[in-house]
Amino acid sequence: MPGEYQSGVNTELLRLKLESHGDVDIPDKVKNVSAVDSDAPLDVAMPADAIIRIKNLKKVFGDNVVLHDVNFYCPKGHVVSVLGPSGSGKSTMLRCINLLETPTAGEIWFEDQLVNSKETDVDHLRAKIGMVFQQFNLFPHLTALGNVELALKKVRKLSKEQAEAIATEQLEKVGLSDRADFLPSQLSGGQAQRVAIARALAMEPHVMLFDEATSALDPSLVRDVLDVMRDLAKSGMTMIVVTHEMAFARDVSDHVVFMEGGVVYEQGTPEKIFDHPDRERTREFLQGMID
Amino acid sequence: MFQAFIHWWENYPITGIFFNFHYIGQAFLPILKCLPVSLLLGVIGFVLGIPGGLLVSFMKMSKVKPLRWLMTAYIDVVRGTPMFLQILIIYFGFPFIPGYKALQMPLKQIVFFQIDLTIWLRALFIIFINTAAYQAEIFRAGIQSIPKGQNEAARSLGMGKWQTMGFVILPQTIRRILPTMLSEFILVFKDTSLFAAVSVFEMVMQAKVIAAATYNQSALIVTAFFYLLITIPLGRFVARMENKLAEQDGGDGGAVASPRAKRGKRPPRLDDTVGDSAHVVSHRENVLNSEVS
Ligand SMILES: Nc1ncnc2c1ncn2[C@@H]1O[C@H](COP(=O)(O)OP(=O)(O)OP(=O)(O)O)[C@@H](O)[C@H]1O
Ligand SMILES: [Mg+2]
After folding, report:
1. C-alpha to C-alpha distances, A45 to A13, A16, A55, A67, A266, nearest whole angstrom
2. Pocket around ligand 1: residues whose beta carbon is below 6 Å from it?
3. I want to staple A192 with a disulfide (CB 3.0 to 4.6 A). Which of A136, A144, A174, A212 is the partner?
4. What residues of chain B lie within 8 A of the CB of A213, using their CB?
């Protein structure tokens, strides 16, 4: 499993890409990359069966280049954690995957589909990619159950009974069957976030994206949400998790991506990233997180 | 003693001319009979304005630039001109619409509350044009006050743009704009009095006729009473609703401010909608003046 990433070449090639790509403006702090053979092929070898493949992703807002060149992939059933300082482009990268942001250049592949292509049926794509937001974004006018049911009825076109059955089951899975009839304003942050997770899971997504799902929570409520995410990972769900929860990233991930200045600065197994990262900024960042 | 008081009351200029019991009694029923006209103009015009305003707000937020420009121009024109003038222009402009003459005769045969359908349609059309512009701004402010995350959450579940609008954004918008919409209704209801300018027999027109015939203004006071009968309870209800919204949402995210409220960002309250009839009064003066000259 984690070994797939360690095939040796991948991380090297990714790093190479940073330097040899002439038109990408690499920030100074990222430039001190260890020398690599510049004759190596530019194309990053990514297993074709990886459920998400991101190649040379670039995103520009106005004249602000937020993502320079992002490359990584996530095989089916794996958990990829994305770490990095504030403003490094983690959210932007995640939002590009389900087209909440339109990539400026590069390729994002979801299963055998090129996501950022004109032919993409955006709604169809998004129905298969679950997303959980830092601010929960529950629909305040609907109960917990109503929140989970809505897309089942409107997108999957299920009957009222079927939708209710699935929604009830999902709420039960996140431990909130007794809160089904509560409005979001009557839920704690941790409960609200678990409803949001249930809402995304009810659509039976092929992959789940988490954008700092626990960052807006009281420390005492973080655990419940992380437990749900752990269970989900164990159940074999493919997950890309932007997080500041280092223990979670270390325990649960198959692969850790460290972003910095709009590029994947370093990536590898959790053991490698946490115990002996190759590069200075990674070390500094992790050091800072522990302090 | 009592006789003497009544005698003084009816001969003293202010009480005698504006609050004369005899003329109040006389005007009460004829004006009450016109209350349905004022109410129907207000209610039907306002209700027609809801889908109209919604459509205009969508077009004003549309990605299609010409559509946006067109709606901006429409809203600017309506909000930048007095309704009194809009009534005069459209009311007298209507007969020049091609085909109107042919329809006129059959339509004139249909009469509600002693007002024929050509008048009803013209008046309702004017109210619709006017209130739709204001309501569009209320809807737009309401829709734009919903946090972006709501849209993103719905879209990320695979819901379409219009599904998201209909099942996620609008239900939340409606709750927020309800007080402002009711305030808008109160304004529309009061503005129906402007139709006296074109002799539509709503309450003010009826009162003017009675006043002129009796050389006594008490009918105007009776009319004021009927307006207040509707506007005060509604205004109180609006204020209560606003307070409740403000409580629930804790300050921000409360009611949407009315596009008619010119004094800062505060949403209109009872004193704005009922007490602040300044523009209505001044129009009504115009009505009276134009009649005098
Ligand atoms: N819609 C936008 N328009 C313009 N700039 C944007 C937009 N969204 C993000 N940015 C900019 O992109 C940069 C990266 O933002 P992003 O939210 O992706 O960072 P992040 O790594 O998720 O940070 P954080 O840990 O604070 O969430 C920031 O400088 C931000 O200002
Ligand atoms: Mg972020």
Report:
1. 8, 13, 10, 20, 16
2. A 61, 64, 66, 84, 86-92
3. A136
4. none
